[in-house]
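Working notes for the structural subgroup meeting. M.R. asked for a predicted model of this chain before we commit to crystallization trials. I am recording the input and output together here so anyone reviewing the notebook later can reproduce the run.

Input as submitted:
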Amino acid sequence: LTGAWFLQLTGLKMTHVPFRGAGPALQAGLAGDIQILFDNLYPSLPQVLDGKLNGLCVTTADRSDSAPNLPVMREGAPELAKFDVASWFGVFLPKTAPAPVVDELNRQIKAMLARDDVRKNIAGMGARADYGTPQQFSDFVDAETRKFAAIIEKEGLQMEVK
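Returned structure, recorded in token form:
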């Protein structure tokens, strides 16, 4: 979907080569079987540092502390001004979860993410620990869902479920 959005915003045309996961796609990139790859920073950055791949940019809104010399994609062209794609993880509970439970779990997560060892491990993966309120996270998830739903709809994509 990252590549699809890039093409939608720029008007460029490329042939999409589907893979069953990031691992096979990265292998194809390393083998020279594909010319461009949108991948997470962590598995690809070592390949860039070893000179096996050319890192062009990151798709996030800000430069990565792990790869500060890689520009963000939206620095390159005005049509990419709103381009922001990042992998993220979150904790979800049923909507029926009692507010005190949600608040306590959120407090515990905040404490965990503040620990130096956790921050170091997360940074070692080329990521960063963000923290917010449950409402901020809910708003973020809603915005991401709307963003990717629009990309999917414009592409006419459907998920294949077996």
